Structures are given as C-alpha cells and as structure tokens.
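Our platform keeps sequence and structure together, in a single record for each protein. Because each token names a local backbone shape, the row as a whole describes the fold. One such record is reproduced below, unchanged from the form in which we store it:
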Amino acid sequence: MSVTKIRKISSTALLVLAILTVIVVGLFFFGGYVDSTAPKPEPVFTDVLFYLMYIALGVTLLTMLYFGVVGIAASLADPKRRKGALGGLLSLVAIVALLVITYAIGSTDKLALSVDFQKYNTEGYLKFADMWLYSIYLVLVLNIIALIGFAIKGSLKK
C-alpha cells in the first residue's frame, strides 16, 4: 500500500472519528436530561457516549494488538531486524503488564450513582475504569518526563 493511500485512509478515519465524537459529546452535554429535577440529573445520551467509548476502546486495543503482533512477526522473520523485534515484544509485554497491574490496584468501593447506572457499580466495572484512569495518568506522567528529559538533553548538546 502506498504512503499516500495510507495517509489518506488514516486522515479520513481520524476526521470521521473526530466528527462522530464531537456530535456525541454535543448530544451528551446539550441533549437535555432524563429528569432535570432529580438530585443527580442524568443526560439523555449517556448510553450513546458509553457505547462510542467502548467501541473506540475495543478498536484501539484490537488494532494495537494486531499491528504489534504483525510487526513483531515481520521483524522476527528478517534476521537483520531480530533485535528490533525484541524491543517491540518488550513494549507489548510492558503495556500488558501496565494494564494488569493497574487493574489489580483498582478500587472496588461502590460509587454514588443514579439508579440507572447501578448496573455499572460492580467490582469488575469499577476496577476496569480505575485501570484505564491509572494507565492514562501514568502514561501522561511518563510523557511529560520524557518531554522534559529530551528538551534538557537537546539543550545540553548545543
């Protein structure tokens, strides 16, 4: 597949996902509430937002695993790139380890949710949500540290 075709497909996919996300988030925030007089009003389109995020998460995970495995397999097949395959395999193992560890430390304390969302107030959902939150926080901190570190390293070279 040519580079221009790959760029065109990825740009189109990004644009479609961005537009879809803006529409769903707009519906969530401006679509009204089921019962606006309730102590904790629930937006009408909460389920649509949840389903969009579940789909995005699933597609992201499946794509990451697919390209990770294909990349590692292609690197292992080429004797010149076997060392690089080890780095890719270590990255994949590190991501899986991060998710397992953050799932294990996730809280199971019940949250004060509306009646409709009590089905999500289970141990599995709570640990799953914490897993992603902790993973996002850790990756964000690591990115900031790397950004600062490479900026310092670049300024010291001059």
In short: The chain has two domains: 1-81, 105-158. The radius of gyration is 21 Å. Helices lie at 3-30, 46-77, 82-104, 123-157. Residues 1-81 form one domain.
